[in-house]
Write a structure and sequence with these properties.
With 195 residues, the protein is α/β, with parallel strands linked by helices. It is built from 7 helices and 7 strands.
Length: 195
């Protein structure tokens, strides 16, 4: 049985799984950040931040003059994230809506959407509003589960193929600019907002 947004009712178990040390073997977070070229002083949205697996890494990458918006629709999950931040001052938690990240227009250089798009109830509407939050030329990095069976990840019927995600992105005004294939269980596409 699942709770709101496709998460299990046992959020503690979910948080442990999302923060497991073994996740780095297949998620390769440091390589993801290198490929994205996250710069100091950048403003980044971590969409579907959960307990902050990428949030804390992004906060270090953007430095004290940068900003990370940690966006999640689950209040209990954001509470866990806030505890884990332990005084980090360049992260702003944002309780989003199902169809709106609730960020200011043209405020972000980059949005990172990892393992979360398949949870969004109204994905196309959310993506349209997220695209508006990007600065002109801003990028959206989408990492989600490959459309095949994998040792980790949701069942196949919950997965969104990368081609479908790119089509939805185009309708939101985003142009696909890169695909990376170094993640064993996920696709990794980068889209850009037109200038």
């Amino acid at each position: 049985m699942t709770a709101v947004h496709g998460n299990p009712h046992d959020l503690r178990r979910l948080m442990r799984r999302q923060l497991a040390k073994t996740r780095a073997r297949w998620q390769r977070p440091e390589r993801v950040l290198r490929v994205l070229g996250v710069r100091r002083g950048a403003v980044v949205a971590d969409v579907g931040a959960g307990p902050g697996y990428f949030t804390t890494r992004l906060a270090r990458a953007v430095g004290p003059r940068g900003r990370v918006y940690a966006i999640d629709p689950e209040p209990e999950v954001l509470k866990v994230l806030v505890k884990r931040l332990d005084g980090t001052t360049n992260v702003t938690p944002v309780l989003s809506l199902d169809d709106d990240p609730l960020l200011p227009p043209a405020s972000c250089d980059l949005a990172v959407f990892v393992n979360a798009y398949h949870h969004v109830a109204n994905g196309p509407a959310f993506l349209r509003r997220l695209a508006r939050c990007l600065k002109p030329g801003g990028r959206l990095a989408a990492i989600d589960w490959a459309y095949r069976e994998t040792p980790v990840g949701p069942p196949l019927h919950r997965r969104i193929p990368p081609e479908k995600f790119e089509r939805i992105g185009r309708r939101a005004g985003l142009v696909p600019v890169a695909r990376h294939d170094f993640l064993p269980y996920q696709y990794f596409v980068v889209l850009r907002r037109a200038r």
